[in-house]
Amino acid sequence: MTNPKKLIHGPHHQRTTHPLVWFAAIICTVIAIAVIIAGIAVFVGYMIIHPRVPFITVTSAHLDNFQNSVAGLVDTEITIVVRAENDNTKAHAVYSDTSFILSFQGLNIAKLVAYPFEVKKNSSVDFHYLVQSSSIPLSPELMDQVDISLKRDKIIFNLKGNLRARWRVGLLGSVKFWCHLNCQLKFHPSNGTYIRSPCSSRAK
Ligand SMILES: *[C@@H]1O[C@H](CO)[C@@H](O)[C@H](O)[C@H]1NC(C)=O
Ligand SMILES: *[C@@H]1O[C@H](CO)[C@@H](O)[C@H](O)[C@H]1NC(C)=O
């Protein structure tokens, strides 16, 4: 005869995982997978579209007028042609927050702005800026600079600024970045000719 074994249950030490913890773990896993898939989608989209960064270039300019008076006041008028290019064959580019400052020897002469505009795939848009500034007061040092510039028949302005470019990339939303422009615009004051030099936001 065998005695029936008596099963004795001790105190239950094993901790059960709370269902909420499981739930949180599953949510986290799902989010992590979603992030990875989104990353792959963006990367593949980038490789397919193979974006070329839109850029801006000063294509031409002309010094229409530059006159200084003995009182140290300068009147000037400059035409600047800025080209916004979108070499991309698969995405439109939208440019916004355009803001350039034209200065002479550190003295701000004019601010050039543009409303947001769109550049179609594989095309470009030219902007003609007419900068007119009258009675810009010059310090004696700047007056000397102007005299030297006129004698050498070469005057240098600075054009500096930013604009924001944005692509519409189908379902992936949009890609934004800043274009920076910082260059010298040189002219012959005698006839207003622009002395060509590279001026582009494209990384060198
Ligand atoms: C882009 O434009 C250039 C010249 O404007 C042209 O030669 C080229 O075929 C165009 N590319 C596409 C894909 O439209
Ligand atoms: C303007 O003047 C400069 C120097 O004086 C000269 O080199 C240039 O050819 C002139 N340009 C025109 C269009 O006359």
From TrEMBL:
> Tell me, what is an example of a GO biological process annotation in this record?
defense response to other organism
Q: Does the keyword Transmembrane helix apply?
A: yes
> Which InterPro entries does the record cross-reference, listed alphabetically?
NDR1-like
Q: Name one GO cellular component term.
A: plasma membrane
Q: Which UniProt keywords apply?
A: Membrane, Transmembrane, Transmembrane helix
UniProt-listed PANTHER family: LATE EMBRYOGENESIS ABUNDANT (LEA) HYDROXYPROLINE-RICH GLYCOPROTEIN FAMILY, LATE EMBRYOGENESIS ABUNDANT PROTEIN
Report what the protein is called. Answer: Late embryogenesis abundant protein LEA-2 subgroup domain-containing protein
State the organism of origin: Malus domestica (Apple)
